[in-house]
Amino acid sequence: MTEGKIQAAAIEMVIAYITVPDLECARKIAHSAVRVRLAACANIVPAMISVYEWNGEIEEGSETILLLKTRKDIFAQLQAHVLAIHPYDTPCILEMPLGRINDGYASWLRSQVG
Q1: C-alpha angle 50/89/51, rounded to 5°?
Q2: Domain coverage including residue 61
Q3: Which pLDDT value is given to residue 7?
Q4: Interhelix angle 75-85/23-35, nearest 10 degrees
Q5: Of 27, 30, 32, 18, residue with least CA distance to 91
Q6: Which residues of the chain have pLDDT under 50?
Q7: What are the φ and ψ backbone dihedral angles of 64, each rounded to 5 degrees?
Q8: How far is CA 88 from CA 25, 49, 50, 80, 95, in A?
Q9: How far apart are the first and last CA of the chain?
Q10: Number of folded domains in the chain?
Q11: 42-47: long-range contacts (C-beta < 8 A, 24 or more apart)?
Q12: What is the pLDDT of residue 67?
């Protein structure tokens, strides 16, 4: 495999990093995004502690991380889909570019999304 093939796959695919209140919400969004082929797959990290400022106060709370793998060109569609079903008023939905990715996995990812 050439370096160019690795880079081309990496540029095309991104990860959506999303924080949600709990495992149930993460599963709901993950199943929905995969079902409509806006994400190839999801990884759910069940527990983390978030510290942030909200309305002038420092808050701390437990959240769940949802990672959705998708194509860069449909990230905006995925983001709109998540916003429509996410329970937060101001959810964290970040597009994270991928670095290198093995060719077989990249092919599978591309085949799974819209």
Answers
A1: 15
A2: 3-112
A3: 46
A4: 140
A5: 18
A6: 1-4, 7
A7: -120, 145
A8: 11, 16, 14, 14, 18
A9: 26
A10: 1
A11: 42/66, 42/67, 42/68, 42/69, 43/67
A12: 98
Task: Let me know the angle formed at the C-alpha of 82 by 77 and 85, rounded to the nearest 5 degrees.
Answer: 130
Cα dihedral sign, 25-31-36-40? positive
Q: What is the DSSP string of 26-79?
A: HHHHHHHHHHTTS-SEEEEEEEEEEEEEETTEEEEEEEEEEEEEEEGGGHHHHH
40 vs 101: CA distance, rounded Å? 15
Phi, psi of 73 (to 5 degrees): -70, -10
At position 33, the amino acid (one-letter code) is A
Residue type (1 letter), 100: R
Residue 19 belongs to domain with CATH number: 3.30.70.120
Q: What is the pLDDT of residue 1?
A: 44
Q: Would you state the pLDDT for residue 8? A: 52
Q: What is the pTM of this model?
A: 0.87
